[in-house]
Amino acid sequence: LLVPFGICMALLNIGGIVWFSRRRLSPLGELQIAVRRREFIVHYQPIVEIRTGRCVGAEALVRWRPPDGSLLSPDLFIPLAESSGLIKPITDQVITLVVADLGQLLATDRSMHIAINLCAEDVATGRVLPVIEKALRNTGIQPDQIWLEMTERGFIDIDAACTTLTRARELGYSAAIDDFGTGYSRLSYLESLPLDALKIDKSFIDTIDTDSATSSVTSHIIDMAKTLKLVIVAEGIESQYQADYLTKRGVEYGQGWLFARPIPAEEFVDYYQKTKTAA
Ligand code: C2E
Ligand code: MG
Ligand code: MG
Ligand code: MG
After folding, report:
1. In this structure, which residues have their CB less than 5 angstroms from ion ligand 2?
2. What atom of ligand 1 comes closest to residue 73's alpha carbon?
3. Count of other CB atoms within 10 angstroms of residue 226
4. Contact by Cβ (8 Å): 162, 192
5. Which one of 35, 43, 61 would you pick to mutate in the ligand 1 pocket, going by the greatest count of ligand atoms within 8 A of its CB?
6. Across residues 10-35, what is the average pLDDT?
7. Ligand 1 pocket, residue 94 CB under 6 Å
8. Which tens digits make up the pLDDT trace of 150-203?
9. Does the structure show a pLDDT above 70 at 7?
10. Measured from the CB, is residue 174 less than 6 Å from ligand 1?
11. Interface pTM, i.e. ipTM
């Protein structure tokens, strides 16, 4: 019995998927158990006013913490979670964690917001909206402090997405298109969606200082977002040069390692208190 198991492990190692071979079940089996045992935590990346560094909120970013003490990046399990449907209970756990971690801060500081990432299916069906509503009940958190981030993959069925967005705004939430520029970004559909904010993908911010072709695309995205009166958030700002460029182009908000990495809740609360009144 041990031999086939050993061979099996060796084969799995050749595949190079370390977190898979370390474990005994299939990745899906492991993820199912993780959901049942609630092995997820949330880190918070500050969203700041670029010009001043003033923190205005945070994006909730999920991590998987298995019992072995490691911390797994969402890129390693979100695709499987999405294809298996496990993303829905994971999203629900993220919402619960956000309220537990930051509920008090959000309830006492009405100017702060928290951004939550939705999966494509929830954008299409709106399933998550009553889940959020219920989680906010009796917490003192106002719906306008909740920003829902969704990538273009959620907009494949544009009518369904429109219905969800309309409902979300009726409930008081804000909606942001995430990773903008990486999908099939057609301007025509952007105009027809009731959005509040647009997040420019990191890949465009990366090339602001190096690649003039891409920075002209970035310029176009900024102009378009302004025409549509969307709040603009730049993702993945790593250099002061990028921050200065964005400020010059009138982009108000951003997030990135220049300001802060995603951090545990307690660290975020400290960061927020220290920077919310920055000049
Ligand atoms: P995203 O929504 O675009 O989140 C931003 C990602 O960029 C985060 O990666 C963040 O750590 C990273 N990042 C931010 N600033 C910088 C920077 O200056 N430099 C670099 N190199 N990276 C930066 P993370 O936390 O690994 O999350 C990856 C993706 O996983 C997220 O991309 C999002 O699409 C997805 N994700 C995370 N949490 C959730 C969740 O609760 N639900 C769903 N559906 N997806 C999630
Ligand atoms: Mg996001
Ligand atoms: Mg993003
Ligand atoms: Mg991104």
Report:
1. 117, 149, 178
2. 26
3. 14
4. yes
5. 61
6. 67
7. yes
8. 999 898 899 999 999 999 999 999 999 999 988 766 667 788 899 999 999 999
9. no
10. no
11. 0.97
